[in-house]
Design brief:
Structural class: alpha/beta
Number of helices: 10
Largest sheet: 6 strands, mixed
Radius of gyration: 22 Å
Oligomer: single chain
Helix content: 25-40%
Length: 304
């Protein structure tokens, strides 16, 4: 039975994402779930050989990319994304039995969750002081421990801890989606499906035009970039690494050519190619006709 880590403790949206991947048969059978205290800790369990994979959040439609996940993927021995899933995220305000919404003076929340319910809290709990918790499920545990009157958490955490829901379906934005990825040690990428995502990390030489030249490797090949983000390397001011997602698969010739070209001039880390849950953008063009034309030229065929 494979051991799969997830950003815990039990009751987080990440555990729900792991369950969704299980039900979609991303694994060959049942898995042993291993809770980890952070995204980085979950990924480090793979590097240490303690688990076979990990599920971590990577992007929110409301708050953008999850920086802790991106940084952990960029540093240390290389890991690889092999699958993804998406969850529509709404929150539950949990409290101990007997607590009313009007009684709440302290509210525990994971920072990403707190940012997604900021307007709701200002309208419904204007006098509540918000305290930071390590995760959505940890916020519920803080309520059980008496460290907060209520928590921004999940219905699953409330059920497991015996807490009362003061409000459900809480979110400042409709259809808030969070994308989660399954990460393993490096391996052969899953087969191309025609609706795939490829992700890389780039560290470019600090010289004029280096970023423009990197983008040109995709543009000239008709490859659609769907995410471009910079994060500081933390080695000094003005030094950044770039995270790029594109439509396509490493087995697509256009994508493969772009990766080879980038490797000649930049430090590149391949994070994986896998089937996208929500196919967005334009797939890269096929070069079958051009490849056949070149083959015929090499054979000495005239009048092509």
């Amino acid at each position: 039975m494979p051991r799969i880590a997830y950003f815990g403790p039990s009751g987080t949206f990440t555990e729900m994402a792991l369950a969704k991947l299980e039900s979609s048969e991303a694994f060959e059978g049942p898995v042993e779930r291993v809770a980890a205290p952070s995204q980085g800790a979950a990924l480090d369990l793979i590097r240490a050989g303690d688990v076979d994979g990990a599920v971590v959040p990577i992007e929110s439609s409301v708050e953008g990319s999850i920086s802790a996940t991106l940084d952990s993927l960029a540093l240390g021995p290389r890991l690889q994304i092999v699958a993804e899933t998406e969850l529509e995220v709404t929150f539950t305000i949990l409290a101990r039995s007997g607590t009313r919404l009007a009684d709440v003076r302290t509210l525990a929340a994971y920072p990403v969750a707190g940012a997604q319910v900021r307007l709701w809290v200002s309208r419904n709990l204007p006098n509540a002081q918000v305290y930071t918790s390590a995760s959505n499920a940890a916020a519920a545990e803080d309520v059980v421990a008496g460290n907060a009157d209520a928590a921004v958490s999940t219905a699953l955490a409330g059920e497991r801890l015996g807490l009362k829901a003061l409000a459900s379906g809480v979110a400042d934005h409709e259809q808030a989606i969070t994308r989660f990825v399954l990460v393993t040690r490096p391996r052969v990428a899953p087969h191309a499906t025609g609706a795939d995502r490829t992700s890389i990390v780039l560290e470019l030489p600090n010289e004029p035009g280096s970023l423009m030249r990197a983008f040109a490797e995709f543009a000239t090949r008709g490859i659609d970039l769907t995410r471009i983000e910079s994060r500081p390397t933390r080695t000094g001011l003005g030094t950044y690494r770039f995270y790029l997602d594109c439509v396509g698969h490493i087995d697509d010739s256009a994508v493969a050519e772009a990766l080879k070209a980038l490797h000649r001039t930049a430090r590149i880390r391949f994070l994986g190619s896998w089937a996208a849950t929500s196919a967005t953008g334009t797939p890269p063009p096929s070069d079958e006709a051009a490849a056949e034309w070149l083959t015929q030229l090499r054979k000495g065929v005239a009048d092509l």
